[in-house]
Model the fold of this input.
Amino acid sequence: MKVLVTVKEVAEVEDDFEIEGTHIAEQFLEYDLNEWDDYAVEEAVQMQEAGDDVEVVSVTIGPERSEETIRMALAKGVDRAIRVWDDALEDAEMLDVAAKTRILQAVVEAEEPDLVFTGVQANDDSFGATGVSLADAIDYEWAAVVNALDIDTLLAENVANVHRELEGGVEELTEVDLPAVLTIQTGINEPRYASLRGIRQAQSKEIAEQDLDDLGLGLADVESDLILTDMYEPESESDATIFEGDAGDTAGQLAEVLREKGVGAE
Amino acid sequence: MTDVLAVTEHRRGSLRDVSFEVVTAGRELADATGGDLHLAVISGDVDKFAEQVNCDGVDQIHTVAYGEEFNHDVYTQAVEALYDDLSPSIVLMPNSVNGLDYAPAVANGLSLPLVTDVVDFEWDGALTATREMYGSKVETTIEVDAERVAVTIRGGEWPAANGTGDAEVTAFDADIDEGAIGSRVTGFEEVGSGDVDISDAEVLVSVGRGIEEEENLELVEELADALGATLSSSRPIVDAGWLPKNRQVGQSGKVVTPKIYLAVGISGAVQHVAGMKGSETIIAINTDPNAPIFDIADYGIVGDLFDVVPELVDEFQ
Done:
């Protein structure tokens, strides 16, 4: 069985930052593995450990900088990685869901995995749509926002029994035929830290670089119908009373308010 | 045509609030495009749902009677068939967990650009949408370079439609292909029951990512004890396994409305706010003065919880 995991390197923004045009200035960004993808990687690696013959391949759309993040996934147990990049992607202002779908579709067609795991969303642009869009494009079944997966049944019977995390503390129990795309929610497992041994082994694992040409794609395939025209800090709607002073002062003022409201009264 | 097709949502026999919000948002768009607002009601007791959602501003309601509960293959097929029939400019869907289980498939199947989690929009021959990025730190403007588009709207951003409308209700034959349905809902499970019901508490001390380490939880437990409060948390604390699911406040956890909600080290992501914005008094302690939690707080301390919380505990001991 082969599992393909999509892995995205995302930028995290510091508390104080500046916007330049339609981007956050580079010096205020720190790059890391997308939180949801960390859980997706863990779920795939757990399948590989539970099964006899499960290969886990990761795919990333990202520049050379993202190799560090990919190595981290390899160190956690991913067998090999694919990194898609191209000058055309470097120049693109924005990759919309449709463009990402076309790229990943080409990778799936080459790899023919039985399962694709994606994070529910990326914490930078938070579209939350690529996994399901991809499933439709490659004619796989799917389930979005999966927070439990029965790995033993999956390996034995080729069907994915999942829980989908709905709103309001309700989970939907669903049976999904394979091949399938599952979008993985945080909390489904406890992502491991890479071991020193894993980090060493990751150095010799393959990261295959592919450009659009390698994937049989052209410029038109990565053109986005969505254009990012503005980025700004939302106006603060706060009318909160902010207590001033050091920790003792502010705690004292807050305590007064709490007592007025009857808190802590015997 | 410049019509709008909006899709309603229900679960276990009841329409969800988003169904009435897509009506308001859909009417707003239809007024801008000069077209009609069509509503789709798919699966379950469609006649009952159609009657309930027949609010002011709806022009036509199309029912697709097939199955009971939400199934993404059915919804995808039904919405695509309605699109082929009505040829709307905009397909409007909720940005709910189920919305995100079929909207991307609809957009892909119809080759429509997709904008998700939209909080505001304008129509000027094409759609311009407002959405957030980087966990609500920034807002962005997205122009759609196409005449037709699929959109999902964030819950709670548009008011619910009301009033009784006189839209015509028509049964639509979507010709659902049963062979193409590859997933089956086998049941539902309520999660988060247990020893404590945080939705009963009058005072909640709620802890978030800012607590950093599991062993630091002791600090907020002490505070909760000192205040006679119940301890709750935001999602990352439950994801990490530090507190059980029944302590989680937010969209996928519990909705709480205590007299006092004291948020410690919680930034106030939209999913969290959805679960506690109805609290009577909201107090936030956070290092980041721009954290969205301060937008809805009544009182705030911009500071390090590790300095402030011990002082606050002292005040009540």
Q: What stands out?
A: Chain A has eight helices and 15 strands. Chain A touches chain B through 83 residues (CB under 8 Å). The first helix of chain A runs from residue 35 to 50.
